[in-house]
Write a structure and sequence with these properties.
Elements (H helix, E strand, L loop, with lengths): L1 E2 L25 E7 L16 E11 L2 E10 L6 E7 L19 H10 L3 E5 L4 E3 L3 E2 L3 H4 L4 H18 L3 E11 L1 H11 L1 H4 L6 E5 L6 H21 L6 E2 L1 H8 L4 H11 E2 L2 E2 L11 E2 H13 L12 H10 L5 H4 L7 E6 L7 H13 L5 E6 L21 H13 L2
Parallel strand pairs: 5-6, 5-9, 9-10, 10-15, 15-16
Antiparallel strand pairs: 1-8, 2-3, 3-4, 4-6, 7-8, 11-14, 12-13
Length: 409
């Protein structure tokens, strides 16, 4: 077993290969003795476990996979507690949703905040992940199963059933907190709990909301974001067309590979590209001219068989597309919802979260809230829009979730 980085750069977006294969099966679990604060499953960079007991548990997902998980709860707690179950973004994520490049984790600070409000939490390694890192199994049947998104749903349901059977948990107070792919999983399960054999969740928290079909989101990630960048960072006078000066200035400061990609579309030396400037007016229309060339060079019209897209991602996207989006599924859930999205999110755009929240409201749910954070990207941290850097959720995001949990306890 080795720690791999093959998909880590995109690990929390929905563009990466995800996980797992079919069969609902009731999850069995083994619980180890209580672990002291700072035990192995937590990140060493975090010291916020004081007053929180951590139990290392195992959950049987079926099909030959028993996953490691961690159940936490306030050490002085008495009686059954509400619990937050964490649902990852896409990729082979560990229970902390450890971020690439040593940038910390998504879930540890949120679990600690929930614990401070009297909640238990349950975090788990995805199928195929053996330990924090993440460390991946060498078994392709676990890492690359058929019907991968369907299996992710079923494994999440197993975790929820495990939580419901725990003597420390109030089964009527199970909250789902999903990030990216996890927002769709949470919405699918909450929208039809009987189908998945789980108790009705008490509430749903969504971070980086999958409010549009996966084809739309992948098209935006691969193609649309390039046009957005041309409009936002190149088109100084906002007329939708680029002069040679605007194109040249826009390349300044970009990473070489990115600059080369745009240069090949926009410029021939000091002049605009004659091949792109199809009406020969000396300016490049971003949408009609640059957009047409970029459609050809990205091969986005061949979706899902886009060159360079990992075959497993293609399989994942096809399977994902069979299920409702958050916008379609979450309105069927009649409990409280909280949606959070970064305004600069280029993987699950804020507009998709706005559409999802509007659908929840239109369905008659009075207890819903949407927060769009300026300056934040997909991992809910403040970072440049077109060159985001991974980071743990900003303090204001943690405070928002903590307050929402407190008010719905």
């Amino acid at each position: 077993m080795t720690a791999t980085k093959s998909h880590r750069k995109l690990t929390i977006g929905i563009t990466t290969a995800a996980i797992l294969a079919a069969g609902v099966g009731v999850a069995n679990a083994d619980v180890s003795p209580s672990a002291p604060a700072g035990a192995v499953a937590g990140s060493s960079r975090h010291s916020g476990w004081a007053g929180i007991t951590r139990e290392q548990v195992q959950i049987d997902f079926g099909k030959g996979w028993v996953t490691k998980a961690e159940l936490t709860y306030p050490s002085n707690a008495r009686g059954r507690l509400p619990v937050v179950v964490f649902l990852h973004g896409s990729g082979h994520n560990d229970m902390n949703q450890t971020l690439p490049e040593g940038k910390g984790s998504t879930f540890v600070p949120l679990a600690q905040a929930a614990g401070r409000e009297g909640f238990a939490t349950l975090r788990f390694n995805k199928r195929g992940v053996t330990d924090i890192g993440p460390v991946e199994s060498t078994d392709p049947a676990q890492l690359l199963p058929e019907n991968p998104y369907r299996q992710i749903q079923l494994d999440a349901a197993s975790v929820i059933r495990f939580a419901a059977r725990s003597p420390r948990i109030d089964p009527s107070k199970i909250y789902l907190l999903g990030h990216s792919e996890g927002t769709n999983v949470a919405a699918n399960l909450a929208g039809d709990p009987k189908k998945y054999g789980i108790p009705k969740p008490a509430g749903v928290v969504e971070m980086g909301v999958v409010g549009k079909p996966i084809e739309d989101l992948l098209t935006f990630q691969i193609y649309g974001r390039l046009l957005l960048q041309l409009h936002d960072e190149f088109d100084v006078d906002g007329d939708g067309r680029l002069t040679a000066t605007e194109a040249t200035d826009g390349l300044v400061g970009l990473p070489k590979a990115e600059a080369d990609q745009f240069r090949s579309v926009l410029l021939d030396g000091r002049k605009v590209s004659a091949a792109t400037d199809r009406d020969h007016d000396g300016r490049i229309a971003i949408d009609a001219e640059a957009g047409a060339v970029l459609r050809e060079t990205t091969h986005i019209d061949d979706y899902p068989n886009v060159p360079g897209l990992d075959p497993y991602v293609v399989s994942y996207a096809k399977d994902f597309a069979r299920f409702p989006t958050v916008t379609q599924a979450l309105p069927k859930f009649r409990g409280p919802t909280l949606m959070l999205n970064g305004e600069n999110d280029l993987q699950t755009p804020a507009r998709a979260a706005i559409a999802a929240d509007a659908a929840v409201a239109a369905a008659g749910n009075k207890d819903h809230k949407l927060v769009i954070y300026p300056g934040m990207a997909h991992t809910m941290n403040i970072t440049p829009k077109f060159h985001p850097v991974f980071g743990e959720p900003d303090k204001q995001v943690i405070t928002e979730i903590q307050g929402w949990l407190k008010s719905h306890r």
